[in-house]
Amino acid sequence: MRKRKRKIIIFIVGCVVSFMLVSCFTPRPRVRLLSSTPRTVVFSGVNLSVNGVQTLRSADVLCRKYGRYAIHRPDSHRDGIVTYECIE
Question: How many domains does the chain have?
Answer without folding.
Answer: 1
